[in-house]
Amino acid sequence: MRKSHPLRRVVLASAATVSGIVLLLTLKPSSDPGSSAQAAGTGAAAQEAAQGGAGAPVTGTVTGDAIQTQYGNVQVRITVDNNRITKAEAVQAPQGGQSTQRTADAVPKLNADVVAKQSPNIDMVSGATYTSEGYKKSLQSAIDKANSGGAQGGSQSGGGQAQAATFTGDAAQTQYGDVQVRITVAGGKITKSEAVKAPQGGESTQRTNDAVPKLNAGAVAKQSADVDTVSGATYTSEGYKKSLQSAIDKANAGSAQGGSQQSGSGGGGGQQQASGTFTGEAAQTQYGDVQVRITVAGGKVTKAEAVKAPQGGQSTQRTNDSVPKLNAEAVAKQSADVDTVSGATYTSDGYKKSLQSALDQAGV
């Protein structure tokens, strides 16, 4: 897992008609060896943007990777405006038993500390050590994505050579553990694929070590999630392909929004409207994860579907009853403000959270 090395940079800028000092806070990505290629490309671009160079300052919402803890996943979303974090929120956090109260106590403090300190170097909350650690790791991931151009909804300007960006797929659950894939995309091509999570322990470690390099190479070679299943690692291969597809969906979502977007008055250019598929973050519920994918055309949601929903026992029937209603209402209301389905409260709440995440990505 990457360590965070946050730091504030002070930039002295001068204008032709006004002399002043402008304090610009940039978000520094973690500096582990696996990030060197990204740091050389997108990190430099983010710094240039903050200094008023060719790129635009980072603005938008960015969701960090889900971090597993002993008591459940923690996942953080930040809102950035002109390189400043204006809001932080936990879209996933441990629930159930004592965890619910500890989460309710800890998360507001962590959220506030992020905005105050503008970095992942926030204080641990007493009594919520695991949640605090997971929060900081997911926060660092969100900051990394912001610096690599992963902010959704922000304006992007300037031509020139396409720069690399990283996209992390949703974690796919398998019988032996989660699989999660991160891809690097440059010029519309996958240039690197890596598993940031894969089954470990016992025979799983060796199977992962054998399978993942082949899957990584297959992703780059085929430029799609249609990679060959590795013999002896069927579950890992299936999970890898699911997470890889999620990462590709996110990359496509970024491409759909990556053109020049203008919102000012005057001039001829209108605002570019998003089109494509956007998969929201998986939302944990008491009965299982809920995850929503939307299809957007011309800035309108034309389809919504649950790619994950609780199954087993009574949950299967409740899912079958509620999800079609939720899907229809998402299209009708064009927002996450859909009605809770009676008898499926947890599924409805999870659906709305994941739907909001997908809408954030689409910028609609």
How would you describe this structure to a colleague?
This protein has 364 residues and is of the alpha+beta class. The protein has three domains: 33-147, Alpha-Beta Complex (Sufe protein. Chain: A); 162-255, Sufe protein. Chain: A, CATH 3.90.1010.20; 274-364, Sufe protein. Chain: A. It has seven helices and ten strands. It has helices at residues 36-50, 98-117, 129-147, 203-222, 234-257, 314-333, 345-362; strands at 60-63, 67-69, 72-81, 84-92, 165-168, 180-186, 189-197, 276-279, 291-297, 300-308. The strands form three sheets. Strands 1, 2, 3 and 4 form a four-stranded antiparallel beta sheet that branches. A three-stranded antiparallel beta sheet has the order 5-6-7. The longest helix is centred in the C-terminal third of the chain and has 24 residues, at 234-257. It is globular. 45% of the residues are buried.
